[in-house]
């Protein structure tokens, strides 16, 4: 039986790094952000629906999605964001689990779903286990400011807009502490893979 393992964390906690370490170890990882881009590519059902709701102003002359134009609309209007999620989430969900089913048929022991909003969008309900990558608040703030070249105030606002890390940790089956360096992180991921294989 293939186990479905959810992977999430807070912004700038190192979830993507953990995802990459898992891939390097030969673990199949399905990236929700990549899937989201796929369901919005030119001539896709997702993009057609987005244009129908938000109008042609969200399209580039190339027929691709104008992400900044769409972001401007949805991040200033909760109702618009809700509409966008109603269009995209079912498509993303179906595409993720279609990929997971293909891997299951190959008899792979476990598949990792890398989903930033795992709990918020209830993907945890379809997972056998959930991994949360976390850091202490100071480290998270420092990394976010360095990564996105934003002010302390902007970084704090972005962190505050997310589900608190402490809540995610409380719901996790496995926790990865990413306060240290890359070596410490790789050791934890290697240990985690062993634990998952033993389950």
From TrEMBL:
Pathway: Cofactor biosynthesis; coenzyme A biosynthesis; CoA from (R)-pantothenate: step 5/5. Its EC number is 2.7.1.24. Its main location: cytoplasm. It catalyses: 3'-dephospho-CoA + ATP = ADP + CoA + H(+). ATP binds at residues 12-17. Coiled coil: none annotated. HAMAP family: Dephospho_CoA_kinase. Catalyzes the phosphorylation of the 3'-hydroxyl group of dephosphocoenzyme A to form coenzyme A. This is Dephospho-CoA kinase.
């Amino acid at each position: 039986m293939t186990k479905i393992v959810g992977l999430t964390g807070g912004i700038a906690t190192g979830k993507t790094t953990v995802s990459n370490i898992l891939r390097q170890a030969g673990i199949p990882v399905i990236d929700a952000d990549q899937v989201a881009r796929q369901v919005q590519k030119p001539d896709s059902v997702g993009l057609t629906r987005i244009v129908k709701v938000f109008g042609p102003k969200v399209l580039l002359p190339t027929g691709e999605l104008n992400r900044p134009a769409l972001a401007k609309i949805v991040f200033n209007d909760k109702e618009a964001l809700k509409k966008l999620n109603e269009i995209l989430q079912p498509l993303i969900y179906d595409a993720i689990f279609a990929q997971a089913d293909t891997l299951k048929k190959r008899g792979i022991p476990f598949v990792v779903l890398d989903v930033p909003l795992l709990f918020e969008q209830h993907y945890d309900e379809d997972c056998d286990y959930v991994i949360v990558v976390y850091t202490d608040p100071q480290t998270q703030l420092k990394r976010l400011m360095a990564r996105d070249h934003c002010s302390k105030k902007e970084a704090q606002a972005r962190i505050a807009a997310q589900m608190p890390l402490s809540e995610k940790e409380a719901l996790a089956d496995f926790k990865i502490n990413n306060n240290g360096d890359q070596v410490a992180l790789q050791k934890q991921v290697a240990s985690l893979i062993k634990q998952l294989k033993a389950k």
